[in-house]
Amino acid sequence: MGENPDKYDYSKAQVPGPLTAEIESKKTEKKKAQKALRKQREKEQKEEKRKQELEAEEKKRFASLTDREKRALAAEKRLAEQVAATGVSLSNVKRCWLCGESLLGKIPFQYLDYSFCTPRCVQAHRKANTLPGKT
């Protein structure tokens, strides 16, 4: 169409206007912007996945601790809060005694000195720690 504007009836054939350098530059800019946006989105997804993996690893590690180690960790947390009121690190996050789920932003279920994320964790802990003669 750019070389032979009068040769055919381009409007009847529904052929769009001629491709110009300005249109081509707009298309390349649009593609670059889309590519940058896609890369940014992938980077954010990767970061979110890494955070979830770290949380799962911390949860698994906390769940594998014995009750004594969990109590010691809670005592260390209280001591750290008394020493300095700076940011809380991931290892000092309050967690469920049974499964290790983080209790940040949740209202924990408590009995005695224990904190749990769900009533199911409370029941499982109580069943696991009952005396053999007591029912």
UniProtKB/TrEMBL annotation:
- Give every Vms1-associating treble clef domain span: 91-130
Question: Bias regions of kind Basic residues — which residues?
Answer: 28-38
Return the annotated region ranges for Disordered: 1-60
> What biological process terms from GO does the record include?
ERAD pathway
Give start-end positions of Basic and acidic residues composition bias. 1-10, 39-60
Q: Where are the transmembrane segments?
A: none
- Stated name of the protein: Vms1-associating treble clef domain-containing protein
**What species was this sequence derived from?**
Lates calcarifer (Barramundi)
